[in-house]
Amino acid sequence: MTGSKDHLLAAWRRHLEPRVGPALVALDARTGSRMHRCADGPVPWVLYCVYRRRNADTVRRLVEHRPPGSRVVLHALDESAPELAAWTASHGPGRRMPLLQSLVDRDPPLDGEWVVVADDDAVFVGGQVGAFVRLAAAGALDIAQPAHVHDSIHSFRVTRAVPLSTVRETRFVEVGPVVAFSPGVRHRVLPFPSDARMGWGLDVAWTLVRRDGFRLGVVDATPVRHHGAVAAEYDDADEYTFQERYLAEAGVESSHELATNTGRTWRPWQRQPRWVGERR
Questions:
Q1: What is the DSSP string of 74-135?
Q2: Domain boundaries of the chain, sorted by first residue
Q3: Which of 125, 188, 209, 235 is most buried, judging by how many CB atoms fall within 10 Å of its CB?
Q4: Which CATH class is domain 2-42+112-266?
Q5: What are the residues whose beta carbons fall under 8 Å from the beta carbon of 10, sequence distance 6 or more?
């Protein structure tokens, strides 16, 4: 029986890997894996995104299949895209974090809503935003990001998708391209600091909330492909300066020192992660 099961898993992996890299993603891209029944049911969320006109189609793919009860609030950096007009609340130039905060101020998250912040150059390869948030909630995460597939542009090895993993508990969640915050941790991450620009260093600050029992993790079952080069369109000198105070508080010289797994993983054949129900 074990050999048969291993054979099926190997066949499944051979079928999926050419399309999504090493992650074994959800069986049903619309609802999340049928293996994870504990993740079924609506989890309300609101997505905030700053987009460029040239990436409007990528953003449309993020929002077009959203489940009932979810909300989308967008800012156009240049020209508002007609296909996104229904969700575009504002437009004009600016820096990422102040613009995201302006969207939050304009249309604040409701009670019980997860907050999702997304860049305009990432595409979900397995599942969609709704499946990602559902699995993050089912995994008892407070700050979560989807994993990167093997050919996605990324900065930290810990964010690369891992085979035979649904969710991994980590010590670090990157500031982009997609990150979600539970209702319980929102008061620790919002509002974003007024002097934050593109967001470097905020992920170090988020790592520090683990001291108070909040859980961070990467959702491998709903990976993304990130197309944009990191820091390709702005001067990163100010970003290094901004993150220095958070690195000092964390007692490290680089965020890479924090970007590690805890060693705990929710596997596809497990109904729920073993840490669910633990005291925080």
A1: EEESSSPPGGGTTTEEEE----HHHHHHHHHHHSPPPTT-EEEEE-TTEEESSS-HHHHHHH
A2: 2-42+112-266
A3: 125
A4: alpha beta
A5: none
In whole angstroms, give the CA distance from residue 169 to residue 182.
15
Give the pLDDT score at 31.
32
Taking CA 123 as the corner, what is the angle to CA 56 and CA 95, rounded to the nearest 5 degrees?
Answer: 55
CA distance 109 to 44: 10
Strand pairing of 71-76 and 88-91?
parallel
Tell me the three state secondary structure of residue 214: coil
Structure tokens at 93: 């130039």
Cα angle at 199 between 52 and 113, to 5 degrees? 80
Question: Could you tell me which of 71, 101, 109, 107 has the C-alpha nearest to residue 89?
Answer: 107
How many distinct helices (H) and strands (E) make up the chain? 7, 10
Residue 11 has pLDDT above 80, yes or no: no
Q: Which residue reads 């460029």 in tokens? A: 52
> Given CA atoms 200, 101, 185, 136 in this order, what sign does their dihedral have?
negative
DSSP 43: -
- What pTM was estimated for this model as a whole? 0.84
Name which of 244, 190, 220, 199 is nearest 97 in CA terms.
199
CB 255 within 8 A of CB 158: no
pLDDT digits (tens, 9 = 90+) for 53-101: 999 999 999 998 888 899 999 999 999 999 999 999 999 999 999 999 9
Distance CA 50, CA 88 (A): 9
Cis (ω within 30 of 0) for the bond into 191?
yes
Report DSSP state, residue 42. Answer: -
Backbone φ and ψ of 53, nearest 5°: -55, -35
The Cα–Cα gap between 94 and 233 comes to 12
Tell me how far apart the alpha carbons of residues 182 and 190 are, in angstroms, rounded to a whole number. 11
